[in-house]
Q: What sequence folds into this?
């Protein structure tokens, strides 16, 4: 990478979220707790889907992949953000900054496609129940995951190959807790208008396209449930309200930063806390606490763990 870029900037300074010592301690505790919940919650879902035969269905296959991506997406920024809150001088090397940007956009792109796949799964289950298993075949589910990863990689690299060649010869302070294309372009020692357009067209188009596809699928689902419920639309809203809330929370920061032409105000770094730390916690809560099959699998798993921990040792002692 040193040969690719003629930059004289070897590292960037991250200004972080706050300069107050008391606030840093508070944020460290909050984000540490959130990150532990993200890791434990999403890995627990992954564990349940893999080892519980009752969850071997298209919806839970996609959910397991979403949980895995949530762990990866959050891990691109949250651990370093927690460490930097304890440091006075927050820096990130040029190579690590570029790697972080690439990973954020790969995992972010994968998550958007997976959310669309899960919405399509629910649309098929509700609107075309007789053809559900035929449409959502194992081959189709694997294809969704492959398409998600290919889309994420292409989405990231199609911007990265342009940004990596930018010259950085002066300012190196980033008013945020992570690296991203808009703020990096602002620091380049060249006219970044062309590169801003490339990133806005790529990330902005993907964000808006995915968001409208999701909203459209939810509209179809709402209409179908409304018709099947004899005009009682409240049932449809209860069914999908949590999912729509997560989608809105996830896409709002992306649209704020990439669609509204690189505002790069100090507000966007706070908005992206929702993407990196809040929605990865909400997904496990929504898909477990509001799902009968997942709650049954959780109870079964807890009972088996209890039996293995307390009952088996007693039986072995009796014999």
A:
């Amino acid at each position: 990478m040193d040969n690719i870029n003629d930059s004289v900037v070897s590292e960037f300074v991250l200004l972080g979220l706050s300069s107050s010592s008391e606030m840093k301690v508070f944020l460290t505790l909050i984000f540490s707790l959130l990150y532990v919940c993200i890791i434990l919650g999403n890995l627990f879902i992954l564990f349940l889907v893999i080892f519980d035969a009752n969850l071997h269905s298209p919806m839970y296959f996609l959910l397991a992949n979403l949980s895995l991506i949530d762990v990866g997406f959050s891990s691109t920024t949250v651990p370093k953000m927690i460490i930097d809150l304890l440091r006075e001088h927050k820096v990130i090397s040029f190579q690590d900054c570029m790697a972080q940007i690439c990973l954020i956009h790969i995992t972010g792109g994968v998550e958007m496609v997976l959310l669309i796949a899960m919405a399509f799964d629910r649309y098929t289950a509700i609107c075309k129940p007789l053809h559900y298993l035929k449409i959502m075949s194992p081959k189709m589910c694997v294809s969704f995951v492959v398409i998600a990863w290919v889309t994420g990689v292409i989405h990231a690299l199609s911007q990265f190959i342009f940004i990596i060649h930018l010259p950085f010869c002066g300012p190196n302070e980033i008013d945020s807790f992570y690296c991203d294309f808009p703020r990096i372009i602002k620091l380049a020692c060249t006219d970044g208008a062309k590169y801003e357009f490339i990133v806005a067209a790529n990330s902005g188009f993907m964000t808006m396209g995915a968001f409208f596809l999701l909203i459209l699928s939810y509209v179809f689902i709402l209409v179908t449930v409304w018709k099947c419920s004899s005009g009682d639309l409240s049932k449809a809203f209860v069914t999908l309200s949590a999912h729509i809330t997560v989608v809105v929370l996830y896409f709002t920061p992306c649209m704020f930063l990439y669609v509204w032409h690189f505002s790069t105000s100090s507000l966007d770094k706070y908005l992206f806390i929702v993407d990196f730390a809040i929605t990865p916690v909400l997904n496990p809560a929504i898909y477990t606490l509001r799902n009968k099959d997942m709650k049954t699998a959780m109870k079964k798993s807890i009972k088996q763990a209890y039996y293995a921990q307390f009952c088996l040792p007693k039986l072995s002692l009796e014999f």
User: Anything to note?
Assistant: The radius of gyration is 22 Å. The longest strand covers residues 11-14. The chain has eleven helices and three strands. The beta strands are 11-14, 91-93, 173-174.
